[in-house]
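Sequence only, no structure available. Ideas?
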Amino acid sequence: MKTPKFLHLNFTFIIALLTIISCSSDDSTNTTEPDVVVDPDQNVTRTIEWTKTFGGSNEDNALSVVETTDGGYAIAGYTLSVDGDITDKTATDSDYWVLRLTKNGEIAWSKTYGGTGDERAEKIIKTNDNGYAVVGYSRSADEDVTINAGLQDYWIVKLDTSGNIQWEKSFGFPGIDRAFSVVQTNDGGYFITGFLDVSASNGDGNDNGSKHGVGEFWGIKLDASGNKVWRRYFGGTNNDRSYDVVQTEDNGFLMIGSSESIDFDITNSKGSYDFWAVKVNADGTKVWEKSYGGSEIDVGYAIATSGDGKYIIVGDSRSVDGDISGAKGNADLWMIQIDGTGKILWEKSLGGTQFDTGRGIHKMQNNGFIITGNSRSNDLDLDKNNGQSDVWNIMIDNTGKILWKSTLGGSQAEFGEGCIETSDKKIIVVGSSESNDFDIPNNKGSKDLIIIKYK
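Reply:
I predicted one. C-alpha coordinates follow.
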Protein backbone atom coordinates (compact mmCIF):
# COMPACT_ATOMS: atom_id res chain seq x y z
CA MET A 1 0.00 0.00 0.00
CA LYS A 2 1.08 3.63 0.40
CA THR A 3 3.51 3.06 3.31
CA PRO A 4 5.78 0.08 4.01
CA LYS A 5 3.95 -2.80 5.61
CA PHE A 6 5.39 -5.08 8.22
CA LEU A 7 4.33 -8.68 7.95
CA HIS A 8 1.82 -9.77 10.53
CA LEU A 9 1.23 -13.25 9.09
CA ASN A 10 -0.07 -16.38 10.67
CA PHE A 11 1.54 -19.17 8.68
CA THR A 12 -1.52 -21.35 9.14
CA PHE A 13 -3.29 -18.97 6.83
CA ILE A 14 -0.40 -18.84 4.38
CA ILE A 15 -1.00 -22.53 3.80
CA ALA A 16 -4.63 -21.72 3.09
CA LEU A 17 -3.57 -19.45 0.26
CA LEU A 18 -2.30 -22.27 -1.93
CA THR A 19 -4.24 -21.03 -4.92
CA ILE A 20 -2.65 -17.57 -4.89
CA ILE A 21 -0.94 -16.84 -8.19
CA SER A 22 1.90 -14.68 -9.34
CA CYS A 23 1.56 -12.96 -12.66
CA SER A 24 3.45 -11.64 -15.61
CA SER A 25 3.02 -8.25 -17.19
CA ASP A 26 3.88 -9.60 -20.60
CA ASP A 27 0.95 -8.78 -22.91
CA SER A 28 2.02 -11.21 -25.62
CA THR A 29 -0.68 -13.31 -27.23
CA ASN A 30 -0.38 -17.08 -27.25
CA THR A 31 0.65 -18.59 -30.56
CA THR A 32 -0.59 -22.11 -29.97
CA GLU A 33 -4.21 -23.14 -30.28
CA PRO A 34 -5.42 -25.12 -27.25
CA ASP A 35 -7.70 -28.08 -27.58
CA VAL A 36 -11.16 -26.98 -28.73
CA VAL A 37 -13.98 -29.47 -29.25
CA VAL A 38 -17.19 -28.48 -31.04
CA ASP A 39 -20.54 -30.26 -31.05
CA PRO A 40 -21.26 -30.62 -34.78
CA ASP A 41 -25.02 -30.71 -34.18
CA GLN A 42 -25.02 -27.26 -32.58
CA ASN A 43 -22.60 -25.44 -34.92
CA VAL A 44 -20.84 -23.81 -31.97
CA THR A 45 -17.32 -22.63 -32.71
CA ARG A 46 -15.06 -20.73 -30.32
CA THR A 47 -11.38 -19.99 -30.85
CA ILE A 48 -8.82 -18.13 -28.75
CA GLU A 49 -8.55 -14.41 -29.52
CA TRP A 50 -5.78 -13.93 -26.96
CA THR A 51 -4.35 -15.25 -23.71
CA LYS A 52 -2.46 -12.91 -21.37
CA THR A 53 -0.77 -13.02 -17.99
CA PHE A 54 -0.27 -10.16 -15.53
CA GLY A 55 1.36 -9.56 -12.17
CA GLY A 56 4.75 -9.46 -10.51
CA SER A 57 7.43 -11.82 -9.30
CA ASN A 58 5.51 -13.11 -6.28
CA GLU A 59 2.12 -14.86 -6.05
CA ASP A 60 -0.92 -13.29 -7.73
CA ASN A 61 -4.39 -14.60 -8.56
CA ALA A 62 -7.65 -13.73 -10.32
CA LEU A 63 -10.93 -15.05 -8.94
CA SER A 64 -13.65 -12.94 -10.55
CA VAL A 65 -14.28 -10.77 -13.61
CA VAL A 66 -16.94 -8.34 -14.88
CA GLU A 67 -17.37 -6.42 -18.11
CA THR A 68 -16.99 -2.65 -17.76
CA THR A 69 -19.24 -0.03 -19.34
CA ASP A 70 -16.77 0.60 -22.17
CA GLY A 71 -16.41 -3.10 -23.05
CA GLY A 72 -13.25 -3.71 -21.04
CA TYR A 73 -12.79 -5.94 -18.02
CA ALA A 74 -12.38 -5.48 -14.26
CA ILE A 75 -10.69 -8.43 -12.56
CA ALA A 76 -10.48 -9.01 -8.82
CA GLY A 77 -8.21 -11.29 -6.85
CA TYR A 78 -5.20 -10.80 -4.65
CA THR A 79 -1.48 -10.17 -4.92
CA LEU A 80 1.68 -10.62 -2.87
CA SER A 81 3.87 -8.89 -5.46
CA VAL A 82 5.48 -5.46 -5.17
CA ASP A 83 6.76 -5.20 -8.75
CA GLY A 84 5.73 -5.76 -12.35
CA ASP A 85 2.11 -4.71 -12.86
CA ILE A 86 1.68 -4.02 -9.14
CA THR A 87 2.91 -0.48 -8.59
CA ASP A 88 1.24 0.77 -5.38
CA LYS A 89 2.35 -1.62 -2.62
CA THR A 90 5.67 -2.11 -0.87
CA ALA A 91 5.24 -5.20 1.32
CA THR A 92 4.66 -8.82 0.38
CA ASP A 93 1.53 -9.35 2.44
CA SER A 94 -1.60 -10.24 0.47
CA ASP A 95 -3.88 -7.40 -0.69
CA TYR A 96 -7.05 -7.12 -2.74
CA TRP A 97 -6.00 -6.55 -6.36
CA VAL A 98 -8.27 -5.03 -8.99
CA LEU A 99 -6.90 -4.97 -12.52
CA ARG A 100 -8.77 -2.88 -15.08
CA LEU A 101 -8.15 -3.91 -18.71
CA THR A 102 -9.28 -2.49 -22.02
CA LYS A 103 -11.24 -4.58 -24.51
CA ASN A 104 -7.94 -5.57 -26.11
CA GLY A 105 -6.42 -6.67 -22.82
CA GLU A 106 -4.21 -3.63 -22.18
CA ILE A 107 -3.88 -2.31 -18.62
CA ALA A 108 -6.05 0.76 -17.92
CA TRP A 109 -5.20 0.76 -14.22
CA SER A 110 -4.03 -1.57 -11.47
CA LYS A 111 -4.81 -0.93 -7.79
CA THR A 112 -4.40 -2.75 -4.50
CA TYR A 113 -6.44 -2.36 -1.32
CA GLY A 114 -5.84 -3.45 2.26
CA GLY A 115 -3.75 -2.94 5.37
CA THR A 116 -0.71 -4.47 7.03
CA GLY A 117 -2.43 -7.83 7.46
CA ASP A 118 -3.65 -10.12 4.70
CA GLU A 119 -6.58 -9.38 2.43
CA ARG A 120 -8.00 -11.63 -0.28
CA ALA A 121 -10.72 -10.57 -2.74
CA GLU A 122 -13.07 -13.30 -3.92
CA LYS A 123 -15.75 -11.52 -5.98
CA ILE A 124 -16.24 -8.31 -7.96
CA ILE A 125 -19.55 -7.00 -9.32
CA LYS A 126 -20.38 -3.94 -11.39
CA THR A 127 -22.74 -1.65 -9.49
CA ASN A 128 -25.67 0.46 -10.70
CA ASP A 129 -23.51 3.61 -10.76
CA ASN A 130 -20.92 1.92 -13.03
CA GLY A 131 -18.55 1.46 -10.12
CA TYR A 132 -17.65 -1.84 -8.44
CA ALA A 133 -18.17 -3.71 -5.20
CA VAL A 134 -15.49 -6.17 -4.09
CA VAL A 135 -15.77 -8.68 -1.24
CA GLY A 136 -13.46 -11.13 0.48
CA TYR A 137 -11.72 -11.10 3.83
CA SER A 138 -9.37 -8.83 5.76
CA ARG A 139 -7.03 -9.33 8.72
CA SER A 140 -6.10 -5.64 9.01
CA ALA A 141 -7.26 -2.65 11.01
CA ASP A 142 -5.17 0.06 9.34
CA GLU A 143 -4.51 1.80 6.03
CA ASP A 144 -7.59 1.10 3.85
CA VAL A 145 -9.30 -1.02 6.54
CA THR A 146 -11.06 0.83 9.35
CA ILE A 147 -11.74 -1.95 11.85
CA ASN A 148 -11.08 -5.64 12.45
CA ALA A 149 -12.87 -7.79 15.01
CA GLY A 150 -10.73 -10.91 14.81
CA LEU A 151 -8.58 -13.17 12.71
CA GLN A 152 -10.54 -12.60 9.49
CA ASP A 153 -13.55 -10.39 8.79
CA TYR A 154 -15.87 -9.99 5.84
CA TRP A 155 -14.58 -6.90 4.00
CA ILE A 156 -16.59 -5.11 1.32
CA VAL A 157 -15.05 -2.23 -0.64
CA LYS A 158 -17.16 0.07 -2.84
CA LEU A 159 -15.14 1.61 -5.70
CA ASP A 160 -15.98 4.27 -8.24
CA THR A 161 -15.41 3.68 -11.94
CA SER A 162 -11.73 4.70 -11.58
CA GLY A 163 -11.06 2.35 -8.69
CA ASN A 164 -11.13 4.96 -5.90
CA ILE A 165 -12.60 3.80 -2.58
CA GLN A 166 -15.99 5.38 -1.89
CA TRP A 167 -16.62 3.38 1.28
CA GLU A 168 -15.54 0.16 2.97
CA LYS A 169 -17.09 -1.95 5.72
CA SER A 170 -15.94 -4.87 7.86
CA PHE A 171 -18.20 -7.46 9.50
CA GLY A 172 -17.06 -10.18 11.85
CA PHE A 173 -16.21 -11.51 15.29
CA PRO A 174 -13.02 -12.88 16.94
CA GLY A 175 -12.68 -15.91 14.65
CA ILE A 176 -12.34 -16.65 10.93
CA ASP A 177 -15.21 -14.99 9.05
CA ARG A 178 -14.83 -14.98 5.29
CA ALA A 179 -16.97 -13.58 2.45
CA PHE A 180 -17.04 -15.30 -0.93
CA SER A 181 -19.77 -13.59 -2.96
CA VAL A 182 -21.92 -10.48 -3.23
CA VAL A 183 -24.89 -9.30 -5.28
CA GLN A 184 -26.37 -5.84 -5.62
CA THR A 185 -29.98 -6.14 -4.58
CA ASN A 186 -33.06 -4.80 -6.35
CA ASP A 187 -33.35 -2.00 -3.78
CA GLY A 188 -29.81 -0.77 -4.50
CA GLY A 189 -28.25 -2.41 -1.44
CA TYR A 190 -26.04 -5.49 -1.24
CA PHE A 191 -26.17 -9.05 0.02
CA ILE A 192 -22.94 -10.80 1.07
CA THR A 193 -22.50 -14.51 1.69
CA GLY A 194 -19.69 -16.60 3.08
CA PHE A 195 -19.14 -18.31 6.41
CA LEU A 196 -19.07 -17.34 10.07
CA ASP A 197 -16.89 -18.89 12.75
CA VAL A 198 -19.81 -19.41 15.11
CA SER A 199 -17.74 -20.94 17.91
CA ALA A 200 -15.37 -17.99 18.07
CA SER A 201 -18.27 -15.54 17.88
CA ASN A 202 -20.01 -17.17 20.86
CA GLY A 203 -23.10 -17.59 18.75
CA ASP A 204 -23.38 -13.94 17.72
CA GLY A 205 -24.13 -13.04 14.12
CA ASN A 206 -27.78 -14.08 14.08
CA ASP A 207 -30.28 -11.26 14.51
CA ASN A 208 -32.95 -13.79 15.47
CA GLY A 209 -30.99 -14.86 18.55
CA SER A 210 -30.55 -18.58 17.87
CA LYS A 211 -27.12 -20.05 18.63
CA HIS A 212 -25.63 -23.25 17.21
CA GLY A 213 -22.91 -24.63 14.97
CA VAL A 214 -19.20 -24.29 14.24
CA GLY A 215 -18.81 -22.62 10.85
CA GLU A 216 -21.99 -21.71 9.02
CA PHE A 217 -23.49 -19.97 5.99
CA TRP A 218 -23.58 -16.28 6.94
CA GLY A 219 -25.72 -13.88 4.94
CA ILE A 220 -25.65 -10.13 5.55
CA LYS A 221 -28.08 -7.67 3.93
CA LEU A 222 -26.69 -4.13 3.54
CA ASP A 223 -28.21 -0.86 2.43
CA ALA A 224 -26.77 1.19 -0.44
CA SER A 225 -24.17 2.76 1.88
CA GLY A 226 -22.94 -0.55 3.26
CA ASN A 227 -24.78 -0.39 6.58
CA LYS A 228 -26.13 -3.65 8.01
CA VAL A 229 -29.87 -4.19 7.59
CA TRP A 230 -29.95 -7.76 8.92
CA ARG A 231 -27.74 -10.82 9.28
CA ARG A 232 -28.50 -14.54 9.58
CA TYR A 233 -26.50 -17.74 9.79
CA PHE A 234 -27.54 -21.28 8.89
CA GLY A 235 -26.00 -24.68 9.39
CA GLY A 236 -25.33 -27.44 11.89
CA THR A 237 -22.68 -28.56 14.34
CA ASN A 238 -19.97 -29.12 11.73
CA ASN A 239 -18.50 -27.04 8.87
CA ASP A 240 -20.89 -25.34 6.45
CA ARG A 241 -19.59 -22.76 3.96
CA SER A 242 -21.43 -20.65 1.41
CA TYR A 243 -19.54 -19.82 -1.78
CA ASP A 244 -22.11 -18.04 -3.94
CA VAL A 245 -25.54 -16.39 -3.93
CA VAL A 246 -28.23 -15.07 -6.28
CA GLN A 247 -31.21 -12.86 -5.58
CA THR A 248 -34.41 -14.74 -6.40
CA GLU A 249 -37.42 -13.48 -8.32
CA ASP A 250 -39.34 -12.85 -5.08
CA ASN A 251 -36.52 -10.60 -3.73
CA GLY A 252 -35.22 -13.35 -1.47
CA PHE A 253 -31.79 -14.96 -1.70
CA LEU A 254 -30.49 -18.42 -2.58
CA MET A 255 -27.14 -19.23 -0.97
CA ILE A 256 -25.19 -22.30 -2.07
CA GLY A 257 -22.05 -24.05 -0.90
CA SER A 258 -21.25 -27.17 1.08
CA SER A 259 -22.35 -28.70 4.37
CA GLU A 260 -20.72 -31.32 6.59
CA SER A 261 -23.53 -31.22 9.17
CA ILE A 262 -26.50 -33.50 9.75
CA ASP A 263 -28.48 -31.50 12.31
CA PHE A 264 -30.07 -28.14 13.19
CA ASP A 265 -30.84 -26.49 9.81
CA ILE A 266 -29.77 -29.54 7.78
CA THR A 267 -32.60 -32.06 7.44
CA ASN A 268 -31.62 -34.38 4.59
CA SER A 269 -27.84 -34.89 4.66
CA LYS A 270 -26.58 -37.29 1.99
CA GLY A 271 -22.96 -37.91 3.01
CA SER A 272 -19.61 -36.52 4.11
CA TYR A 273 -20.04 -33.10 2.46
CA ASP A 274 -23.01 -32.15 0.30
CA PHE A 275 -23.97 -29.38 -2.06
CA TRP A 276 -26.21 -27.32 0.25
CA ALA A 277 -28.72 -24.65 -0.79
CA VAL A 278 -30.53 -22.30 1.59
CA LYS A 279 -33.42 -20.12 0.38
CA VAL A 280 -34.35 -17.11 2.52
CA ASN A 281 -36.97 -14.44 1.96
CA ALA A 282 -36.33 -10.70 1.70
CA ASP A 283 -36.21 -10.43 5.51
CA GLY A 284 -33.71 -13.27 5.96
CA THR A 285 -36.19 -15.89 7.19
CA LYS A 286 -35.39 -19.40 5.98
CA VAL A 287 -37.91 -20.66 3.41
CA TRP A 288 -36.30 -24.02 2.59
CA GLU A 289 -32.97 -25.83 2.54
CA LYS A 290 -31.83 -28.83 0.47
CA SER A 291 -28.82 -31.13 0.39
CA TYR A 292 -27.59 -32.74 -2.83
CA GLY A 293 -24.92 -35.36 -3.36
CA GLY A 294 -23.77 -38.81 -2.36
CA SER A 295 -21.87 -40.49 0.44
CA GLU A 296 -18.52 -38.80 -0.27
CA ILE A 297 -17.39 -35.15 -0.56
CA ASP A 298 -19.50 -32.94 -2.84
CA VAL A 299 -18.96 -29.15 -2.90
CA GLY A 300 -21.00 -26.52 -4.75
CA TYR A 301 -19.00 -23.44 -5.76
CA ALA A 302 -21.16 -21.33 -8.10
CA ILE A 303 -24.77 -20.69 -9.06
CA ALA A 304 -26.49 -19.00 -12.00
CA THR A 305 -30.14 -18.26 -12.61
CA SER A 306 -31.78 -19.13 -15.91
CA GLY A 307 -34.36 -16.36 -15.50
CA ASP A 308 -37.37 -18.69 -15.37
CA GLY A 309 -37.27 -19.58 -11.69
CA LYS A 310 -34.65 -22.27 -12.22
CA TYR A 311 -30.99 -22.37 -11.19
CA ILE A 312 -27.83 -24.29 -12.11
CA ILE A 313 -25.26 -25.09 -9.42
CA VAL A 314 -21.75 -26.30 -10.33
CA GLY A 315 -18.94 -27.73 -8.27
CA ASP A 316 -17.33 -31.12 -7.89
CA SER A 317 -18.28 -34.53 -6.57
CA ARG A 318 -16.30 -37.51 -5.29
CA SER A 319 -19.44 -39.62 -4.87
CA VAL A 320 -20.74 -42.45 -7.04
CA ASP A 321 -24.13 -42.85 -5.38
CA GLY A 322 -27.07 -40.86 -4.06
CA ASP A 323 -28.00 -38.03 -6.42
CA ILE A 324 -24.92 -38.59 -8.61
CA SER A 325 -25.12 -40.61 -11.81
CA GLY A 326 -22.44 -41.35 -14.38
CA ALA A 327 -19.45 -40.73 -12.10
CA LYS A 328 -16.20 -40.94 -14.05
CA GLY A 329 -13.11 -40.35 -11.90
CA ASN A 330 -11.50 -39.26 -8.64
CA ALA A 331 -13.70 -36.17 -8.71
CA ASP A 332 -16.01 -34.94 -11.44
CA LEU A 333 -17.41 -31.59 -12.39
CA TRP A 334 -20.95 -32.04 -11.10
CA MET A 335 -23.82 -29.74 -11.99
CA ILE A 336 -27.49 -29.76 -11.08
CA GLN A 337 -30.50 -27.74 -12.17
CA ILE A 338 -33.08 -27.05 -9.48
CA ASP A 339 -36.44 -25.30 -9.51
CA GLY A 340 -37.63 -22.60 -7.12
CA THR A 341 -38.47 -25.16 -4.45
CA GLY A 342 -35.07 -26.86 -4.59
CA LYS A 343 -36.19 -29.93 -6.54
CA ILE A 344 -33.53 -31.43 -8.84
CA LEU A 345 -34.64 -31.21 -12.48
CA TRP A 346 -31.48 -32.79 -13.88
CA GLU A 347 -27.90 -33.54 -12.90
CA LYS A 348 -24.74 -34.29 -14.89
CA SER A 349 -21.26 -35.59 -14.10
CA LEU A 350 -18.50 -34.44 -16.46
CA GLY A 351 -14.80 -35.21 -16.51
CA GLY A 352 -12.23 -37.95 -16.84
CA THR A 353 -10.62 -40.45 -14.52
CA GLN A 354 -8.65 -37.84 -12.55
CA PHE A 355 -9.76 -34.69 -10.66
CA ASP A 356 -12.11 -32.28 -12.45
CA THR A 357 -14.11 -29.39 -11.01
CA GLY A 358 -16.34 -26.45 -11.92
CA ARG A 359 -15.67 -23.13 -10.19
CA GLY A 360 -17.62 -20.48 -12.14
CA ILE A 361 -20.81 -20.29 -14.21
CA HIS A 362 -22.41 -17.48 -16.21
CA LYS A 363 -25.68 -17.33 -18.13
CA MET A 364 -25.26 -16.51 -21.82
CA GLN A 365 -27.45 -14.48 -24.12
CA ASN A 366 -28.60 -17.62 -25.97
CA ASN A 367 -29.92 -19.02 -22.65
CA GLY A 368 -27.02 -21.42 -22.43
CA PHE A 369 -24.24 -21.26 -19.81
CA ILE A 370 -20.47 -20.96 -19.82
CA ILE A 371 -18.67 -22.89 -17.06
CA THR A 372 -15.01 -22.69 -16.08
CA GLY A 373 -12.95 -24.86 -13.79
CA ASN A 374 -9.94 -27.10 -14.06
CA SER A 375 -9.02 -30.67 -14.93
CA ARG A 376 -6.23 -33.16 -14.37
CA SER A 377 -7.74 -35.70 -16.80
CA ASN A 378 -6.95 -36.52 -20.42
CA ASP A 379 -9.67 -39.06 -21.15
CA LEU A 380 -13.46 -39.49 -21.36
CA ASP A 381 -14.84 -35.91 -21.53
CA LEU A 382 -11.29 -34.48 -21.71
CA ASP A 383 -9.22 -34.76 -24.87
CA LYS A 384 -5.85 -33.69 -23.48
CA ASN A 385 -3.91 -32.50 -20.46
CA ASN A 386 -0.75 -30.44 -20.79
CA GLY A 387 0.41 -30.63 -17.19
CA GLN A 388 -0.62 -30.86 -13.60
CA SER A 389 -3.93 -29.06 -14.04
CA ASP A 390 -5.45 -27.25 -17.01
CA VAL A 391 -8.18 -24.63 -17.31
CA TRP A 392 -11.31 -26.40 -18.55
CA ASN A 393 -14.09 -24.37 -20.16
CA ILE A 394 -17.48 -25.78 -21.17
CA MET A 395 -20.54 -24.35 -22.89
CA ILE A 396 -23.85 -26.09 -22.17
CA ASP A 397 -27.46 -25.60 -23.18
CA ASN A 398 -30.21 -25.32 -20.58
CA THR A 399 -30.53 -29.12 -20.41
CA GLY A 400 -26.86 -29.60 -19.51
CA LYS A 401 -25.77 -30.83 -22.93
CA ILE A 402 -22.19 -29.91 -23.82
CA LEU A 403 -22.10 -27.67 -26.90
CA TRP A 404 -18.42 -26.75 -26.79
CA LYS A 405 -15.39 -27.35 -24.60
CA SER A 406 -11.81 -26.12 -24.46
CA THR A 407 -8.77 -27.22 -22.45
CA LEU A 408 -5.92 -24.73 -21.98
CA GLY A 409 -2.71 -24.93 -20.00
CA GLY A 410 1.00 -25.56 -19.73
CA SER A 411 3.19 -28.14 -18.06
CA GLN A 412 2.47 -26.75 -14.57
CA ALA A 413 -0.82 -25.91 -12.83
CA GLU A 414 -3.58 -23.71 -14.28
CA PHE A 415 -6.96 -23.01 -12.69
CA GLY A 416 -10.11 -21.40 -14.09
CA GLU A 417 -12.03 -19.38 -11.48
CA GLY A 418 -14.37 -16.84 -13.10
CA CYS A 419 -16.08 -16.47 -16.47
CA ILE A 420 -18.46 -14.14 -18.30
CA GLU A 421 -20.00 -13.67 -21.72
CA THR A 422 -19.51 -10.10 -22.90
CA SER A 423 -22.13 -7.87 -24.52
CA ASP A 424 -20.61 -8.65 -27.94
CA LYS A 425 -20.87 -12.39 -27.21
CA LYS A 426 -17.20 -13.07 -26.52
CA ILE A 427 -16.15 -15.27 -23.58
CA ILE A 428 -13.72 -14.14 -20.90
CA VAL A 429 -12.15 -16.57 -18.42
CA VAL A 430 -9.82 -15.63 -15.54
CA GLY A 431 -7.78 -17.67 -13.10
CA SER A 432 -4.19 -18.56 -12.37
CA SER A 433 -1.17 -20.01 -14.16
CA GLU A 434 2.23 -21.39 -13.13
CA SER A 435 3.42 -22.31 -16.65
CA ASN A 436 5.36 -20.59 -19.44
CA ASP A 437 4.94 -23.18 -22.18
CA PHE A 438 2.31 -24.82 -24.38
CA ASP A 439 -0.77 -22.51 -24.29
CA ILE A 440 0.69 -20.05 -21.75
CA PRO A 441 2.58 -17.14 -23.32
CA ASN A 442 4.72 -16.07 -20.36
CA ASN A 443 5.36 -16.50 -16.64
CA LYS A 444 7.01 -13.89 -14.46
CA GLY A 445 6.53 -15.29 -10.97
CA SER A 446 5.54 -18.40 -9.07
CA LYS A 447 1.90 -17.90 -10.12
CA ASP A 448 0.31 -15.44 -12.52
CA LEU A 449 -3.06 -13.94 -13.14
CA ILE A 450 -4.32 -15.34 -16.44
CA ILE A 451 -7.07 -14.03 -18.69
CA ILE A 452 -8.33 -15.87 -21.79
CA LYS A 453 -10.57 -14.33 -24.43
CA TYR A 454 -12.55 -16.55 -26.82
CA LYS A 455 -14.16 -15.18 -29.96
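The chain has one domain: 11-171+293-454.
Hope that gets you unstuck.
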